[in-house]
Design brief:
With 105 residues, the protein is mostly beta strands. The protein has no helices and ten strands. Strand 5 and strand 6 form a beta hairpin.
Length: 105
């Protein structure tokens, strides 16, 4: 069993993935929308907003996110966050996890 807890953390991090388990996905979190424009050539990313709000850009579309929202970013789609509320928290699942599959834009 592997357990993860975001209480008391700041920033972003990873709970579980092929580096510490037999999973073929990676599961992480962020407590702020990090402005880091990039794309993945092979991985999909699924963002699940747990609390707060944020603004996200995927390709040329900018939109707001709030608790309960979910976004799937497909391979090749440029994406980033442009801001977030102080109480923001999202979880992210990368599938299939491919080490090094991040292309800065």
């Amino acid at each position: 069993m592997i357990r993860g807890d975001v209480a008391g953390t700041h920033g972003k991090g990873w709970f579980v993935g092929p580096w510490n388990s037999p999973l073929t996905v990676a599961v992480g979190f962020a407590d702020e929308g990090v402005n880091d424009p990039h794309a993945h050539d092979e991985m999909c990313e699924v963002y699940l907003v747990a609390r707060g709000s944020s603004t996200m850009r995927v390709r040329d579309e900018t939109f707001g996110l709030a608790a309960g929202d979910m976004v799937v970013v497909e391979p090749g789609e440029a994406h980033t966050f442009t801001g977030s509320s102080d109480d923001y928290l999202h979880f992210v699942v990368q599938s299939p996890f491919v080490k090094g599959d991040k292309r800065p834009l």
